[in-house]
Backbone:
């Protein structure tokens, strides 16, 4: 069986500072580091002892720092994949969330949502973003390793799941998957029927350990 554990990075400084994330390279907060430690412990619990495993991560600092906490627990090197980055918000990155909100153009309810431009110079469209997440998933799933861990970002989780269930890219204009900082999503494919299951979505129950430590 193939098991893929998808982790959304722990709390980042741009969250607490009220700044736009995207490719803005902020690191983890103190709570985020404690969350990352809890994530590492939880992933260690999920993987069978001595099972072969691979660890992939977005190259942005907040994701990589989360992956480091996992790597220490499962003793597996981190393979960085820039395609796993969050959507780019172009000129808005690192600015206040209010700056983005004042300029953001929401997509239409109907029509071509994939190629909608959000009104921010340099920002990615949903199609551009989804295309590279699909590409990252193709690379990861090309490996036969039965246990894989991926650290990525909140919006990216939507297209990780879409790619996992083999949703055609052209149909991904409206899908949304809820995510939380530090959530773990378990995806599994069985060897008999080759069905791709979503076993658990955005599990954060184990993060109580990090909160209790504050």
Residues:
């Amino acid at each position: 069986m193939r098991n893929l554990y998808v982790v959304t990075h722990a709390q980042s400084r741009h969250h607490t500072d009220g700044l736009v994330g995207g490719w803005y390279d902020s690191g983890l907060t103190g709570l985020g580091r404690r969350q990352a430690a809890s994530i590492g412990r939880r992933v260690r619990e999920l993987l069978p002892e001595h099972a072969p495993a691979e660890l992939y991560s977005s190259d942005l600092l907040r994701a990589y720092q989360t992956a480091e906490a996992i790597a220490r627990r499962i003793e597996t090197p981190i393979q960085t994949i820039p395609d796993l980055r969050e959507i780019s918000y172009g000129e808005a990155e690192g600015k206040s969330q209010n700056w983005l909100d004042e300029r953001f153009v929401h997509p239409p309810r109907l029509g071509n949502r994939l190629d909608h431009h959000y009104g921010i110079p340099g920002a990615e469209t949903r199609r551009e973003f989804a295309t590279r997440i699909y590409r990252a998933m193709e690379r990861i799933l090309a490996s036969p390793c039965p246990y894989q861990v991926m650290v990525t970002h909140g919006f990216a989780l939507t297209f990780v799941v879409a790619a996992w269930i083999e949703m055609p890219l052209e149909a991904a204009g409206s899908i949304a998957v809820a995510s939380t900082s530090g959530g773990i999503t378990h995806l599994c494919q069985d060897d008999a029927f080759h069905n791709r299951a979503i076993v658990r979505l955005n599990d954060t129950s184990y993060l109580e350990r990090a909160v209790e430590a504050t």
